Amino acid sequence: MFYRPQDGHPLPHDPFGAIVAPRPIGWISTRGADGSENLAPYSFFNAVAYRPPQVMFASTSAKRDRGDTKDSVANIRETGVFCCNVVSSALAEAMNATSGALPRDVDEFAHAGLERAPCETVACSRVASVPAALECRLVQIVRLEGAANFLVIGEVTGVHLDDAMIRDGLLDVTAYRPVARLGYRDYARVEELFEMARPKG
């Protein structure tokens, strides 16, 4: 099968999200200039550099009460900071509860029954119960092709790790089983690992 995205696809549902999968989920917490907080998951998310450590997420839709984007990007525009919370298997349902297009004045932490904790290097909250969280200062917002597509790049300024997830000096992802986004309504949990050494030279 071959198709050109500009012409549409011949399947009942768009396969693009299932092709580029699994994708880690950036559960992005932000605070607006007015002090209101937002928490939303983004599956177009990843680490993009080691030194300095940087991450990115992309927002691909807009809300009527936020103009050309969603609450996360609007808040980051105002304050220049955000936090990426790692979604463990135990928090999958809570993450999903924060994924809806809720009104601007709804607090997703309260909506999903989540405890918040203060960040150390940036002025916003993080999810207290996540296995890891990355505090970030905005590097750049890039407008992508499309009406509401924005790429947000942040430099990691602080890292929170749950000590219970560190085993033999390594962060053990099988201890918290991170949730990844697949296509359609599908998700995956990381429960099994295999190791490969890079070739020398």
UniProtKB/TrEMBL annotation:
InterPro entries documented for this protein: Flavin_Rdtase-like_dom (IPR002563), Split_barrel_FMN-bd (IPR012349)
Positions of transmembrane segments: none
Domain of life: Bacteria
Domain named Flavin reductase like: residues: 18-168
Official protein name in the record: Flavin reductase family protein
Molecular function GO labels: FMN binding; oxidoreductase activity, acting on the CH-NH group of donors, NAD or NADP as acceptor
